[in-house]
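Look over this record as teaching material.
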Amino acid sequence: MTTFKALEQSGWTEKAAAYDEHFATIADQAIGAILDGAGDVAKRDVLDICCGTGNLAGEVLARGGRVTAIDFAPTMIEIARSKFAGANFHVGDAEALPFPNQSFDVALCSFGLWHMSAPDMALAEAARVLRKGGAYAYTTWLPPQQGWDMFDLLMKAVRAHGTTDVDLPPSPPPFRFADEAEAQRSLAAHGFRDVCLRKGTALWTGTTGEQLLALIYKAIVRAPMIIEAQTPKAREAIKQDIMSAAETMGIDGTITMRWPYLLATGRIP
């Protein structure tokens, strides 16, 4: 069977352009909080881990930082290079960073731990490449019971009409690093100190449930696979439930859905 890591890499390689068009506007809402949490990046060496199509790296440049960025999807890197010529982009693995020890002053990971098969290795690698006093920041989505509307709609629809026990490779617990106690423990275990946790909320807006379903299918990897793994009858019922539930949330023709996240920051002493 295909591994979780291979599935994520192939999925994001395929969906890079759709991600940039449809999903980046959601994740990018956390960019300001990430950089504010990491501190002043001007004239500092910054590593953007799981950089996607480069918008966080671009903001580092705008704030006067020197930025190196890495992602495992070559198509993501192609788009990022086309947008931000001043950054140094690499195709590579966050769990085995191709950089020497103590190479950077700041390391950032915007919603990347969610997609890693061995996130502890990624934390260890981030700590390894940071200089003494270096800052690290990551963001990760909070679980549906903390207000993630899209995931809540998806899981309710799947449980009502199908099953979550589908033939996909096993994945690490998706919300592990969104648990505040676990975030504190994991960062401390990898040498980070002065850990600070903050919550934020990004928003998606649309006018129809069909637009939300298109976002799920075009710009997310595993969620549509869960839907497509159902029986044909269940699959269609799940899609209809997602669209109708989204439209009940509309006010004056606009559907607004919350995407809450946790921002964690720490420093290498």
